[in-house]
């Protein structure tokens, strides 16, 4: 492994674009690396170049990132084919002699332009002048992989060559983990189980690492625990929902009528051989938390309920109850629950985090909001917490959710009050999500009608027979009648 500093090409995956840089910044902090991550302009650009960085640092970044496809040591580049090949020929004399005795393969990557296999081979053959610098070709198990990458801009219908890069592949990102812990194969899942990509991103932004403790106060089926445990954190969680935590809720898989007897959060971790990282889960309301004040964790990573698929509730204060019943030794206590305004929940969560996080510990959470009224002023704030990053993910309709990452900067502080209009807007999220205006309904009907007419027109052009719904039903009924004969 080279200890000299160099230039490295970082190629990103093309999903969750807003989450790239918060994740990279978090990984740099996690490993205490002296690297300033540059921002691409525009943000949709699929790569960045790290300057004056050593190989061990980029390997550490790749060992955690799910936003990165791969990192390559950048050898040479060009803005067009002529410039690239001129620079590549001049670079041959600087290639290390050791590569002459080592097997290799070339990988051709492109962005915004698809190349078929013959075209990829043609690209490789144009670099015949590199043969003198490398050993034998081995497409199965090469010692070295070299990357040729073409960037054709961001205009999908008008690709234009802008950059060509050549370098040595150093490391892949952790994209394979997404399939490895996919919800499709997970033992125990629910309606709100966090999908693998996002849960891994959250674990990275929470700085989850070996021998530290991560806590999820809305643990549900434990998706966030799985990701944190994969990064070797010890995990613990709580949830107010008795049925979910005990796997008594209705199954969400269409083929499953009842839950298996061995479904549990622990079973999820055992499925991935992570049971040694599992501390426990318990039923509890974090706003009336049974945890000792001395219970301190390194990170709190969670997905609070929004009131849409999961109700927002908390244990009712006993002082509010008007009627008391006699308790016997064998009596089972079912605590009364009361409704919980969404921004009250977030204020309590921030206060809880200040109380139970270590200094510089991180709180990572999701905040839902209507897209039309999105503004950073809606973010919950606390004087003892610093907002590190925020990234948006589009949801159904005109709603979105924001991943917020906070860092504890003080042992004491208080929630910063929001303006009434802002708080009311957030507390009304469920109503906004579930309610559609009459005009929105009409607009959607018009859009569906326009698509239907366009499809009819295109079908007629192809000479396809078009039936009205009434004609189709009549034809199907006739067919079923004849089949019965």
UniProtKB/TrEMBL annotation:
Keywords in alphabetical order: Cytoplasm, Methyltransferase, RNA-binding, S-adenosyl-L-methionine, Transferase, tRNA processing, tRNA-binding
Q: Which SUPFAM superfamilies match?
A: S-adenosyl-L-methionine-dependent methyltransferases
Please give the InterPro entries that the UniProt record associates with this protein.
DNA_methylase_N6_adenine_CS, RlmKL-like_Mtase, SAM-dependent_MTases_sf, TRMT11, TRMT11_N
**Any single Gene Ontology cellular-component annotation:** cytoplasm
GO MF annotation, one: tRNA binding
Query: Which positions fall inside the tRNA (guanine(10)-N(2))-methyltransferase TRMT11 N-terminal domain?
Result: 7-175
Q: What is its main location?
A: cytoplasm
EC id: 2.1.1.214
Top-rank taxon, per record: Eukaryota
Q: Where in the cell is it found?
A: Cytoplasm
Q: What class of enzyme is it?
A: transferase
Single Gene Ontology BP annotation: methylation
The reaction(s) catalysed by this protein are: guanosine(10) in tRNA + S-adenosyl-L-methionine = N(2)-methylguanosine(10) in tRNA + S-adenosyl-L-homocysteine + H(+)
Domain Ribosomal RNA large subunit methyltransferase K/L-like methyltransferase: from-to ranges:
186-309
Oligomeric form and interacting partners? Part of the heterodimeric TRMT11-TRM112 methyltransferase complex; this complex forms an active tRNA methyltransferase, where TRMT112 acts as an activator of the catalytic subunit TRMT11.
Q: Please explain the role this protein plays, according to its UniProt record.
A: Catalytic subunit of the TRMT11-TRM112 methyltransferase complex, that specifically mediates the S-adenosyl-L-methionine-dependent N(2)-methylation of guanosine nucleotide at position 10 (m2G10) in tRNAs. This is one of the major tRNA (guanine-N(2))-methyltransferases.
The record's family statement is:
Belongs to the class I-like SAM-binding methyltransferase superfamily. TRM11 methyltransferase family.
The entry's protein name is tRNA (guanine(10)-N(2))-methyltransferase TRMT11
């Amino acid at each position: 492994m080279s200890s000299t500093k160099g230039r490295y090409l970082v190629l990103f995956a093309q999903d969750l674009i807003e989450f790239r840089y918060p994740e990279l910044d978090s990984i740099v902090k996690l490993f205490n690396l002296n690297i300033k991550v540059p921002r691409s302009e525009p943000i949709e650009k699929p790569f960045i170049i790290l300057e004056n960085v050593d190989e061990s640092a980029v390997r550490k970044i790749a060992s955690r990132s799910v936003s990165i496809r791969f990192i390559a040591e950048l050898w040479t580049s060009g803005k067009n084919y002529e410039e690239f090949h001129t620079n590549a020929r001049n670079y041959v004399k600087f290639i290390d002699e050791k590569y002459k005795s080592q097997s290799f393969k070339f990988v051709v990557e492109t962005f915004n332009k698809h190349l078929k296999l013959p075209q990829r081979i043609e690209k490789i053959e144009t670099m015949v002048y590199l043969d003198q610098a490398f050993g034998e070709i081995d497409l199965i198990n090469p010692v070295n992989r070299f990357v040729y990458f073409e960037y054709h801009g961001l205009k999908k219908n008008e690709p234009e060559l802008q950059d060509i890069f050549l370098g040595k592949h150093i490391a892949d990102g952790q994209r394979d983990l997404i399939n490895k812990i996919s919800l499709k194969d997970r033992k125990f899942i629910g309606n709100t189980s966090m999908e693998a990509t996002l849960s891994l991103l959250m674990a990275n932004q929470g700085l989850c690492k070996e021998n530290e403790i991560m806590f999820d106060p809305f643990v549900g089926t434990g998706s966030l625990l799985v990701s944190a445990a994969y990064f070797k954190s010890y995990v613990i969680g709580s949830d107010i929902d008795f049925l979910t935590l005990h796997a008594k809720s209705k199954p969400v898989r269409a083929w499953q009528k009842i839950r298996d007897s061995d479904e549990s959060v622990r079973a999820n971790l055992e499925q991935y051989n992570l049971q040694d990282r599992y501390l426990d889960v318990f039923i509890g309301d974090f706003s009336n938390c049974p945890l000792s004040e001395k219970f301190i964790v390194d990170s709190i990573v969670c997905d609070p309920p929004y009131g849409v698929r999961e109700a927002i509730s908390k244990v009712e204060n006993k002082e509010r109850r008007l009627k008391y019943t006699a308790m016997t030794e064998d009596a089972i206590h079912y605590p009364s629950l009361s409704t919980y305004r969404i921004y009250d929940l977030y204020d309590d969560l921030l206060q809880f985090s200040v109380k139970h996080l270590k200094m510089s510990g991180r709180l990572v959470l999701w905040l839902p909001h209507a897209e039309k009224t999105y503004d950073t002023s809606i973010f919950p704030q606390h004087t003892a917490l610093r907002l590190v990053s925020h990234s948006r993910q589009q949801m159904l309709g005109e709603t979105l959710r924001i991943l917020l990452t906070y860092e504890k900067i003080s042992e004491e502080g208080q929630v910063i009050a929001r303006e009434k209009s802002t708080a009311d807007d957030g507390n009304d999220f469920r109503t906004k999500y579930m309610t559609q205006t009459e005009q929105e309904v009409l607009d959607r009907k018009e859009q569906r009608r326009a698509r239907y007419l366009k499809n009819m027109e295109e079908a007629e052009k192809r000479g396809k027979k078009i039936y009205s719904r009434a004609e189709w039903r009549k034809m199907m009924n006739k067919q079923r009648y004849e089949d019965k004969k």
